[in-house]
Design brief:
three-stranded antiparallel β-sheet; single chain; mainly alpha
């Protein structure tokens, strides 16, 4: 005798939980423009006791399309300031890549290294520990408020800002739509591996 199908999961009140709305339903857009990123960096630089660190974090995340988890995991042995290279360890099954570092990034990172506590991690807290995901989100959100942006800002908008910049520069950011689902993670990463270092 076959078992009867299980009823749909409900809350204690007997009602189905509300569905999470799509991002497009709660936010007009997911990206930042280049001008908004510039304002974000300026706001971060003049806010709090670690303005240079915070502005550098935003710059590196934007230029190299880094996720929050990739930003907080970034270590100095992945930063080649002499030759201007950043070794990016991607997550979500994406392939590692090497991006060039430009003048503003190199200068900002050199100053950060001089002024920061000795640590293998690039972005550290006052306790000399790697920054947390929530700490990065607070920095970006606070900078967005200080910059006067009329919408909430979260770090992943910086990653989307990279794609927006590349699309405006004429790169085909839709090329990976024809790739099978099983390869989507590596394809998404390849977009930023190929073009991400060209963002300026």
């Amino acid at each position: 005798m076959s078992a009867s199908p299980k009823p749909p999961q409900t809350s204690f009140s007997g009602k189905l939980p509300p569905r999470k709305p799509h991002n497009a339903q709660v936010r007009a857009r997911e990206y930042l423009t280049g001008e908004e990123v510039r304002r974000l960096m300026q706001a971060a630089r003049r806010t709090g006791r670690h303005g240079h660190r915070d502005a550098t974090l935003i710059l590196i995340a934007y230029r190299h399309a880094l996720r929050v988890s990739e930003v907080v995991a970034l270590q100095w042995d992945r930063v080649d300031l002499c030759h201007g290279r950043l070794h990016v360890e991607r997550l979500k099954q994406e392939v590692p890549s090497v991006h060039p570092l430009r003048g503003p990034e190199i200068r900002s990172l050199r100053r950060l290294k001089r002024e920061s506590a000795v640590s293998p991690y690039v972005f550290v807290s006052e306790r000399r520990a790697p920054m947390s995901d929530s700490g990065v989100r607070k920095i970006v959100a606070r900078a967005g408020a200080v910059a006067g942006l009329d919408f909430p800002v979260h770090p992943h908008r910086l990653r989307h800002a990279t794609g927006y910049k590349l699309a405006n520069d004429g790169h085909d950011t839709r090329a990976n739509r024809t790739i099978p689902r099983s390869q989507k993670h590596s394809a998404h990463g390849s977009l930023y591996t190929t073009f991400g270092s060209s963002v300026s």
